[in-house]
Specification:
- It is a single chain.
- This protein has 3 helices and 25 strands.
- It has about 400 residues and is mainly beta.
- The N terminus and C terminus are likely disordered.
Amino acid sequence: MTYRISQRSIGLAAMALFALGATASVRAQQAFKNTVVPTAVTQQTIWKYTTVDPGLDWQTSDFLDGDWESGPGGFGSRITPSAVVGTEWTTSDIWIRKVVTLPDIATLDGLGLIVHHDEAVEIYVNGTLVLQDTGYSRDYYSSVLDLEARNAFVTGDNLIAVHCHQTEGGQFIDVGVESVISGSATVLVADARDKSEEWKFTTEEPGTSNWVTAGFNDDSWPSGTAGFGALETPGGVVGTMWSTGDIWLRKTFNVDALPYQHYYLSIHHDENAVVAINGVTVLQVVGYTTDYTDVDISAVAKDAIHPGENVIAVYCHQTDGGQYIDVGLKAVLSEPPVALRPRSRAQASARKAFTWSPAYGLLFPGQAAGSPFRFDALGKSRSLPRSGR
């Protein structure tokens, strides 16, 4: 009942749009994903869990889980590749349950799961099996639900119940939910993969926190072509060499008066980065990526962005290894949903993982929006080795 796709596969149309050298005047119909229930990558939320076989009907809403323990996801061993562990789990089996609230699902093209499991997993929604898989994943992956599985969800409260079984090696389970939205995309700032955007930049401390605002005078800053970094950085498209420990970037962009519902950043960072729009922090990321990833910043950006001229400001801090920073921004005007193709039963399909590793790059969309533009601890992102299972 699921279709596995990479984090960027539904955004292939967006890449074609970028290839046109698109600006705010060019729009194209495409699909975008919104996080409805976060995984531990973005937010460690509380689940009920047990490592003792709960017996029958544990996946139903009528089951009483009052004697289960509570803990933040994900669950597992910290040695597991790409695991973001909130609660340690070392036994052979774990059962987890969580009630989540969904908006009006009739307005969505579809729903999907974000999953990282090691090993075998069964996922139920309101008592209906929507995903079953054996083996293990090395990273988080997306599973787009077909019509039958999507119909297991209802508007309002939903019970997600998960069983994971472990035999050897690393072990981990974490589950999130995402919506799929169709809409017309407008490229506000293209990333370096498809267009050589010019940015103002400096490698010297600006000396004031106002450098992120529209009123800051950056006339003395040089101009450079994105992306900024070292040529050996994986996945990077270097337009301007950057080899110091820190870099500050600024760029203006224009927005028309259309009522955009969603805003997405495409970002490739090595290492820690913060992004602000008109002085408001919309994204803070720690660690590094090995390729571009799309991040939904709608919750914060809708209030930060206004019609007319806007300023996007980016700070990146580097400690060792490769270094790179590039950011793109697109807006989406939602359109009516389309029909989904039904399937007959829950089954797994070919896996493609995300293009970045959460163990090394934790995303905090809208982290401390409007708060000081800084990190609490710089240069402490690489706590795990870059190794496989």
